[in-house]
Amino acid sequence: MNRSRQLSVFLTLCLVLLFAISSKIYAADAAKNIRIGGTGTALAAMKSLGEQFRKRHPDVTITVLPSLGSKGGIKALIEGKLDIAISFRGLSGDEQNKGLAAIKYAKTPFVFVTHRTNKISNITLREVADIYNGKALSWPDGTPIRLILRPAGEASTKILESMSEDMKKAVQNSFKRSGLNIAANDQENDILIERLPGSFGGSTLCQIISENRKLNVLPLNGVKPSVSALASGKYPYFKDLHIITGPKSSPQVKQFIDFVFSSSGRSFLGKTGHLPAR
Predict the structure, then answer these.
(1) Which tens digit of pLDDT belongs to each residue from 84-139?
(2) Which end of the chain is more exposed for a tag (fewer CB within 10 A), N or C?
């Protein structure tokens, strides 16, 4: 082999080695960026947990994406666009067959809320059904009730329909009414209720606390929604929250999940409207 040929082979080997090293460095850097997305209910709390996690692991970056919904988060996880999806539901058989895994980390009270200026201090399930049916159109002070809906089939809508047979019919009737606002996601829902005088709708305690929403959270049938009331069974309505991971989770993802279930993570969850899973 002549000298020119030897030099060419040597340079080619150097380029291959440099590419291999660069690929490993890129992969290592990518693994240190944990991308989280899914149901809007949990995103603010996840962002705060990520900030606490980074104090212990400053080399890891936590990126929390805007609300994708549970379905959108799981889809993004399957497509490799997320490292962790947050979902109100567990996995279907098909999703499990794709190598996904789910673990419930908390539940949070599902609550009824109004604009912060509303003086009402309690509501019954019968009154809620009347609002959705359109039988009750104004508050005791005469302010028109501005009902905020979520799309049919969405998690919050399903919870409402599960409360009673009357509520199921009332919710279905509400979609036949004209002129009502339908919030596309959890954040839009709370923003609308926060901004519109006379507003009424459903939300979750963890989102209200984590996002510092200025809303009037109503006791239902005389029971104040709280983590302790949920734990005791006195308050029966809630959303489950699951962490969903893919088949090839990085060590950093596993560290973050361990942190969520640590005493520090559980303490934070308890203070922000979550009942941590056992």
Answers:
(1) 999 999 999 999 999 999 999 999 999 999 999 999 999 999 999 999 999 999 99
(2) C
Residue 192: exposure state from Cβ atoms within 10 A (0-12, 13-18, ≥19) = middle
Length of the chain, please? 278
Helix, strand, coil abundance in the chain, percent, nearest 5: 45, 20, 30
Is residue 27 in a domain?
Answer: no
* Tens-place pLDDT, residues 34-65: 999 999 999 999 999 999 999 999 999 999 99
pLDDT single digits (tens) 194-213: 999 999 999 999 999 999 99
Q: CATH no. for residue 258?
A: 3.40.190.10
Averaged over 232-237, what is the pLDDT? Answer: 98
Burial status of residue 36 (CB atoms within 10 A of its CB: 0-12, 13-18, 19 or more)? buried
Domain that holds residue 38: 32-107+239-276
CB 117 within 8 A of CB 197: yes
Q: Which of 121, 116, 177 has the alpha carbon at shortest distance from 147?
A: 177
Question: Phi-psi bin for 199: left (phi > 0), alpha (psi -120 to 50), beta?
Answer: beta
Task: Supply the mean pLDDT for the chain.
Answer: 91
16 occurs within a structural domain: no
Quick one: 75 and 160 in the same domain? Answer: no
- Domain count of the fold of the chain: 2
Phi then psi dihedrals of residue 38, to 5 deg: 140, -140
